[in-house]
């Protein structure tokens, strides 16, 4: 999974960076998927 590779590039606590990368990879039409993923990371 692509997200797994992203996480290894930089510390997981950098949520802004993570959001940026997710938005770059996923199309805007998948916004709900993106938000769900972000939410999972913030819960950790």
From TrEMBL:
This is Uncharacterized protein. It comes from Romanomermis culicivorax (Nematode worm).
């Amino acid at each position: 999974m692509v997200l797994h590779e992203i996480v290894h590039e930089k510390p997981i606590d950098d949520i802004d960076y993570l959001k940026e990368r997710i938005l770059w990879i996923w199309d805007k039409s998948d916004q709900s998927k993106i938000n769900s993923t972000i939410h999972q990371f913030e819960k950790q």
